[in-house]
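> forwarded from #structure-qc
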């Protein structure tokens, strides 16, 4: 499984590692509601959202690793928001992370081929080695299938892979639907819990009880849910019934 070489809200949760999970800025499909657009780019609004994220994100100086789903809108969000950390001013690269791609197989949620992405985004600021290790990353089959069992498995693998990384403060720019799988906020009937992620929203998570157990379970940090006005970890803002009990 390891691609590291090849590829709580509660105060008692140890602060050993923090994952800053971010939904991408607004894409063309978000504004047109047309999911037949293949791998859409950010709109001008989405670019502004990404820029504002970069201006207001309070943990920029502590970030050790930037990961992003290898779709245009997530890569663009990461490139804009975290530009101070990337060449030519910084030394970090965005790690294109295919396990972080969106959940469905609609064209808007299906990535482009690696050679196209490399030509568009280059290699100075993006590390493509995991995508190269999984040349079928945009096939929506196998590891990247879209049924709930496969999505749960992919989310668990990604949590475990990020837990294995030596970096302590990790950013992942991903997608609203998949982030519910990653944070274990999907019901058995397929309904999402914990409230929707708005474009360019970030939340901070740690591993439950430090390591997260066999499932590498994540728990939202208290500073994260309090900042967004929620009543508890992974609760919807203003909700009286969603989220972790």
């Amino acid at each position: 499984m390891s691609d590291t070489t090849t590829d709580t809200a509660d105060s008692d949760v140890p602060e050993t590692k923090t994952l800053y999970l971010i939904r991408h800025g607004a894409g063309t499909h978000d504004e047109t509601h047309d999911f037949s657009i293949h791998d859409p780019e950010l709109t001008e609004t989405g670019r502004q959202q990404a820029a504002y994220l970069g201006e207001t994100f309070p943990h920029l100086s502590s970030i050790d690793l930037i990961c992003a789903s290898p779709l245009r809108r997530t890569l663009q969000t990461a490139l804009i928001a975290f530009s101070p950390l990337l060449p030519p001013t910084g030394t970090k690269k965005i790690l294109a992370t295919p396990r972080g791609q969106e959940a469905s197989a609609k064209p808007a949620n299906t990535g482009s081929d690696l050679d196209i992405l490399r030509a568009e985004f280059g290699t100075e600021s993006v590390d493509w080695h995991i995508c190269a290790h999984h040349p079928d990353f945009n096939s929506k089959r196998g590891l990247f299938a879209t049924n709930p069992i496969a999505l749960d498995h992919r989310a668990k693998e990604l949590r475990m892979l990020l837990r294995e990384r030596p970096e302590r403060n990790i950013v992942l720019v991903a997608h609203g639907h998949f982030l519910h799988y990653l944070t274990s906020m999907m019901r058995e009937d397929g309904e999402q819990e914990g409230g929707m992620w708005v474009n360019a929203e970030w939340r901070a998570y740690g591993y439950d009880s430090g390591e997260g157990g066999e499932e590498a379970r994540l728990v939202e940090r208290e500073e994260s849910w309090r900042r967004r006005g929620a009543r508890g970890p992974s609760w919807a803002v203003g909700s009286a019934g969603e989220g972790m009990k």
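QC bot note: The chain has eight helices and seven strands. The domain at 18-227 is CATH 3.40.50.1240 (Rossmann fold).
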